[in-house]
Amino acid sequence: MKKDKKKEKKLSKTEELEIKAAEHLAGWKKALADYQNLQKESDKRLSSMSDFTTNAFILELLPIFDNYRTAIKHIPTDQQKESWAIGLEHILKMWQTFLDDHKVEQIETGNQKFDPYWHEAVGEVNEADQDDQVIVEEKLAGYKLKNVVIRPAKVIINNHK
What we know:
The protein is of the alpha+beta class. It has helices at residues 2-73, 83-101; strands spanning 104-106, 119-125, 135-140, 143-145, 148-151, 153-158. The protein is 57% helix and 18% strand.
């Protein structure tokens, strides 16, 4: 009978160790899952902060880009083939590439219905041949980054009264 008790104790110890091992494994898996969730949350926060600073930086650059585009439009037709004018066009393409590389997109306004999330109405007209609340003119381009408005497009809308 002594042997049976020793076997029981040995089995009990083995079972105890298996239970403890299972508890430790479960604890380790929970800790790993918590760590992975923390990593994902940290990555999201860093991405949000990065997007926020990118938006702020781009917002400061947009007036320069807008004025540059306006200046290019005012190059006299007879001088558009001059090397200096062609150089300015290349610089404009570099600006556009910069915005593209940073995933900044221009907000659509042509033949669009007014949406206050994307557009800011700065004026209105009452034209019977146009649909109500349709953008008839863009006054200043709007931009977005990852579907977040950096600057709304300033537009004139048709408003039937």
